[in-house]
């Protein structure tokens, strides 16, 4: 019985960690993508100050998801790392450059422009790599007996380039709606102006990927056609969130645009899971095929049961402490 339920529990834990990372770290990566287009340096200060107290805590979810995946589904690593090594390296390099720019930008005056570029390009590279890796998972790769047999650049295709660009647009949308929530004055007005444009870009890419996915993955095409009553609920809910986001921006509401942007990501993520479940290693290896011994999963589960509530609690506390608007001339130093 444990052999059946423990992989399900761990799949839920890792899935929760992944979506929490996407939501929590997505908006500050999105601000980095928007950085070159900000009205002026004061606006850039506000953008960075709005996420400076929370960005490093947001990445806790990436560590949790990655460590959980290694412990619960080690065979996934034996396939994913050889297949996605360059993409993962680019993602981590981008996150490193983005991270150090937080500290050095505020300490440097003569070379601040270089740290501005590091913040921007680190965010762009990390986001594009994440999107391309998701696209690779959707299209699948060459696997034989849990051994990757493809090339080093098989992950980089026109489809994965599109998913990378799509995630960049999506994170930028999250960043713009976060800025609506956290800023005021001309900075907030700028965020209101760019949000509808970013939303239309996201919807355009979403439509293209939806049409392209059945062509690159026969498994997904079969799933979409066989389970219309279930899977198509998620894109419908995604469009509902998009409509409410657009309306809330036009009404100049402050909190609802960000909530609806989060909802847009959540339902897209659930749609992806429904399209592939229970396959964890394309083309047909399930979570039960890739799981570690039940004893190992149970041992790790005991620790995670205590860790996740603590992480959720301190994350919520951090956002509560640093609630409110970020003003020009005030913030992180």
Would you give an account of this structure?
- This protein is an all-alpha fold and 333 residues long.
- The chain has a domain at 7-194 and 286-321.
- Helices cover 79% and strands 3% of the residues.
- It is built from 14 helices and four strands.
- The strands form two sheets. Strands 1-2 form a two-stranded antiparallel ribbon. A two-stranded antiparallel ribbon has the order 3-4.
- It is globular.
Q: Short description, anyone?
A:
With about 325 residues, the protein is mainly α.
> What oligomeric state best describes the polypeptide chains here?
single chain
- The coarse overall form would be globular
Mean pLDDT: 85
Q: Please summarize the sheet with the most strands.
A: 2 strands, antiparallel
Helix and strand sequence: HHHHHHEEHHHHHHEEHH
In angstroms, what is the radius of gyration?
Answer: 20 Å
Q: Could you say which structural class the secondary elements and strand pairing correspond to?
A: mainly alpha
Beta-strand percent range: under 5%
Approximately how much helix is present in the residues? over 70%
Query: How far is the N terminus from the C terminus?
Result: 54 Å
């Amino acid at each position: 019985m444990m052999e059946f339920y423990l992989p399900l529990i761990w799949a839920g834990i890792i899935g929760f960690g992944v979506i929490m990372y996407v939501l929590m770290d997505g908006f500050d990566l999105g601000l980095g993508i928007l950085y070159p287009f900000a009205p002026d340096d004061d606006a850039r200060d506000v953008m960075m100050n709005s996420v400076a107290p929370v960005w490093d805590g947001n990445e806790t979810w990436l560590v949790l998801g990655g460590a959980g995946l290694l412990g619960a589904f080690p065979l996934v690593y034996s396939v994913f790392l050889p297949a996605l090594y360059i993409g993962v390296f680019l993602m981590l390099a981008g996150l490193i450059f983005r991270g150090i720019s937080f500290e050095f930008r505020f300490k440097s005056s003569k070379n601040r422009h270089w740290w501005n570029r590091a913040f921007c390009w680190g965010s762009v590279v990390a986001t594009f790599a994440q999107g391309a890796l998701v696209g690779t998972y959707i299209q699948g790769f060459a696997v034989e007996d849990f051994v990757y047999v493809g090339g080093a650049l098989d992950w980089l295709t026109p489809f994965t380039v599109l998913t990378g660009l799509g995630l960049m647009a999506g994170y930028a949308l999250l960043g713009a709606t976060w800025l609506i929530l956290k800023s005021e004055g001309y900075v907030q007005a700028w965020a209101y102006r760019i949000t509808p444009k970013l939303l239309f870009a996201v919807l355009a890419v979403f439509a293209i990927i939806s049409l392209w996915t059945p062509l690159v993955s026969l498994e997904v095409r079969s799933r979409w056609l066989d389970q219309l009553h279930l899977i198509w609920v998620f894109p419908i809910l995604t469009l509902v969130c998009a409509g409410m986001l657009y309306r809330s921006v036009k009404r100049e509401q402050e909190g609802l645009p960000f909530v609806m942007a989060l909802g847009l990501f959540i339902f897209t993520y659930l749609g992806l899971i429904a399209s592939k479940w229970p396959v964890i290693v394309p083309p047909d290896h399930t979570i039960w095929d890739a799981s570690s011994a039940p004893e190992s999963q149970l041992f790790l589960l005991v620790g995670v049961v205590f860790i996740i509530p603590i992480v959720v609690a301190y994350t919520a506390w951090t956002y509560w402490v640093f609630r409110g608007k970020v003003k020009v001339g005030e913030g992180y130093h």
